[in-house]
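re: ur question from earlier - yeah i can do the single chain one, its not a big deal. heres the input i used so u can compare w yours
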Amino acid sequence: MKTWAIIAATTLALLTTQTSVYGWYPYGKRYQKWQEKNGFMMAGVHNTLPADHLPERLAHFKAAGLNTLFTMEPHNSLKWHQAAHAAGLQWATEHPERFVSPNWKVTNPASPLNGLQVNEMFARVLDMPGATFIKAGDGPKTEEHLDNIAQFTKWVRTKFPDVLMLTCLSIEQLAASITDYDEDRYIAQTRPDVFAYFKYPLRIHDESPQFLAQMRRGRDAAHRHRLPNWMYVQTWEQPPIRRDGTQRDADGWLRLPDEADVRYLLFTFLAHGGNGVMFYLYYGHDGTVMMEDTVADEARDPADRHRLENLVPTRAWHAVRDVAPEVQTLSRALLNLRTKNPIGYVGETIPDECSAFKGHDLLDSVVNL
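and the output i got, formated as tokens:
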């Protein structure tokens, strides 16, 4: 693990962005209004079932340095949202697309939601104080899905002007999505206030070789559309054996990030112009920020299978807690900076699908603001 820490630190030290003082531009009016009232987004995606011991759970969450509770199940999270607001936290949630999909209805016929009830449910959710953003989708799989996301984002913008609309994309899954679909078309049709993407790169023994290329691609898409760029940060593990005893493909084995990993992921993203992070997934079981992939599953399990998280601070909890104040300090400047030119990289080898840094002369023309 020490070797990985050295590699991560070296990679970050040699990563730089070609910028210019003349490249600044404003984000959208909705985001600018929101940013005036809020700091750097440090959200944690949290399972909200069950809803017991809320004061202890939220105190543990807040003490990690996180400022926004991101819930996975909006229609089951009302008590969490109320308690988060009372504790001085913002909260966010996501469009529950899995609840209205045909596959979900087939496997869960008792689901309380259908497509016609989603907006009504969100109207009740968003009327509660403390809402900061809503996420819609991880990327459409069909034309109908894309249209549904676009209609939902339009509805949120119209009815809740103070709540940010975030659309997210798994860039590595583009090939499996609909024909002629890319991040530019996605952004143009959904018109988000914030563009986010996710890539969980830390595998059991190495790092995904496409990680930096996909981070650059996410940054470039946000830059082209003059949108803030947020990212999901890996704080979970996905072991070789699933909960049902079956084995995953080797490419799906993810390790739980340690202190060096968390810093590498965060500061590399900041070097790409990032201005908001969402830790996936925060929970707090002993030994991890999140125990394998079971918490996401438990959110949809019967209540008798839910477990009270272990509130003993763990190594991964400390990793997030220790880096949070550093990010918040840097964010005072980062939130008002914009990257202008393409991202460039230096080092013995250039990452896959990335370009070498060619802007050394620009460093001599930096102007103090």
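Confidence is low (pLDDT under 50) at residues 1-21, 99-112, 284-300. not sure if urs matches, ping me
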